[in-house]
Amino acid sequence: DAKTTQPPSMDCAEGRAANLPCNHSTISGNEYVYWYRQIHSQGPQYIIHGLKNNETNEMASLIITEDRKSSTLILPHATLRDTAVYYCIVSPLTGTASKLTFGTGTRLQVTL
Amino acid sequence: GAVVSQHPSRVICKSGTSVKIECRSLDFQATTMFWYRQFPKQSLMLMATSNEGSKATYEQGVEKDKFLINHASLTLSTLTVTSAHPEDSSFYICSARGTGNEQFFGPGTRLTVL
C-alpha cells in the first residue's frame, strides 16, 4: 500500500517557484518525510528531509503541516534542469524499517 | 552529497549467464546498502537490504537464489543475477547509507539479457 499520494504530473514555468504537494495521512510519529528526484535514466538524487519543522537547504524548502499529514516541496526558482520525477517518501530514520519505498512520484516538467 | 558508484553502467549478456554488479561508497562507510530494480516507465522497487557482514534481507517476491547479494565490506556490495533471462532486463540501482542516515544512490546499471 502506498504511504504517500502525489499528483502524477505538474508543469512549471522556468524561473517560477515549483510547489509539489504530498499527502501522507497515515504517517507515524517516528517517520520522516524524504524527498528525492530522478532525472531520466539516472539514480535518484536526495533533496531534503524533515520530521515536523520546516526545512531549507540549497536545493529546496520543505513545508510540513502541523498535523504532519501533508507536506510541500518548494523549488524556489525552477530551471529546465529541475525537470524530473519527484518522490515523496516517509520512513523512520533508523532501524530495520528504515528503508525508502518509492511510489509513483510527480513528474515535473519545467518549461520556457 | 556522498558519492556512490556502480559498475558496470551498462551490460548486455546472453540468456542463461550470470552477471555481477558492483556498488561502492566512495567517500563514506556504508553500514547498509540497498538494491532496487526499475522497469521502463515504472518506479523503483526495493529488492533487498544488506548489512555489512550479514545476510541480505529480501523483499517479498524477490528470489534470493536468483539475486545473490554480498556485502563483504563497508564500501562494497555486489548483486549477482544468476541464470539471467530476458525478463530480468532492467535498470538496477543501489543505494548506501552511512552513519548519517542519509541514503545516497548510485547512477544505476542497465542490464539487457538477450
Which key phrases capture this entry?
A: 112 residues; mainly beta; five-stranded mixed sheet; four-stranded antiparallel sheet; globular; B: 114 residues; seven-stranded mixed sheet
Can you walk through the features of this model?
The complex is a heterodimer of chains A (112) and B (114). By secondary structure, chain A is mainly β. Chain A has strands at residues 9-13, 18-23, 31-38, 45-50, 55-56, 61-64, 70-75, 84-92, 106-111. In chain A, strands 1-9-8-3-4 form a five-stranded mixed sheet, with no helix packed on it. In chain A, strand 6 (61-64) and strand 7 form a beta hairpin. Chain A is globular and about 40 Å long. Chain B is mainly beta and 114 residues long. Chain B is built from no helices and eleven strands. In chain B, strand 5 and strand 6 form a beta hairpin. Chain B has strands at 4-7, 10-13, 19-25, 32-38, 45-51, 57-58, 67-73, 76-81, 90-97, 103-105, 109-113. The interface between A and B is medium-sized, with 21 and 23 residues.
In short:
Chain A is mostly beta strands. Chain A has strands spanning 9-13, 18-23, 31-38, 45-50, 55-56, 61-64, 70-75, 84-92, 106-111. In chain A, β3 and β4 form a beta hairpin.
* Straight-line distance between termini of chain B: 36 Å
Shape of chain B: globular
- Reading the helices and strands of chain B in chain order gives EEEEEEEEEEE
Number of helical regions of chain B: 0
Share of residues in strands of chain B: over 45%
- The tally of helices of chain A reads 0
The whole-angstrom Rg of chain A is 13 Å
The Cα radius of gyration of chain B reads: 13 Å
Helical/strand content category of chain B: mainly beta
